[in-house]
Specification:
It is a single chain. The protein is an all-alpha fold and 162 residues long. It is built from 8 helices and no strands.
Length: 162
């Protein structure tokens, strides 16, 4: 008869709650944190779609914002909503620029269209979630909108060259 020895699984190290001192926060470019930083961050993110600028405006580091997004689903949802709003603003700016709304406003339309195309899936998923639509229908609508913007851009460039 053979005996088997049981080995217990290795013990896991306990995770410590890490507290940062004000000096450590300042070293990372983050001073005392306003309790409403998330609101300020999300407002700026909707306006600019720029995480670094939004974190700076809110008085926190970008890494804190990303960490909060990873750890708090409600903040992650609000983040996606703010970006969606930012993409809608960008679409409107591109359309207004193509229609000659504000000739003094400088907008890199080609890069704006690239950005909208690159985030097509994010926009489609958020629109589908908000409107309870099928994602394929939203993708089709986005493709039509991008095609319209591209054709207007080509038409505006051909008129400009003439």
């Amino acid at each position: 008869m053979t005996s088997t020895t049981r080995t217990s699984p290795p013990k896991r190290a306990k995770r410590k709650n890490v507290r940062f001192t004000e000096a450590q926060k300042a070293a990372e470019g983050e001073g005392p944190v306003n309790k409403h930083w998330r609101t300020y961050f999300l407002q700026e993110l909707a306006a600019t779609s720029n995480v670094t600028a939004s974190a700076k405006k809110a008085g926190v580091s970008a890494s804190r914002a990303y960490k909060t997004r990873r750890e708090h689903e409600d903040f992650a949802l609000a983040w996606r909503t703010a970006l969606y709003e930012g993409y809608e603003h960008l679409e409107m700016e591109v359309l207004a620029s193509l229609r000659g709304h504000d000739p003094d406003r400088k907008l890199d339309i080609a890069n704006a269209i690239r950005l909208l195309g690159a985030h097509r899936e994010t926009i489609a998923a958020e629109r589908a979630r908000r409107e309870g639509q099928d994602e394929a229908a939203v993708f089709a609508a986005l493709d039509r909108k991008l095609a319209t913007i591209r054709s207007r851009l080509a038409k505006a460039e051909s008129q400009h060259d003439s």
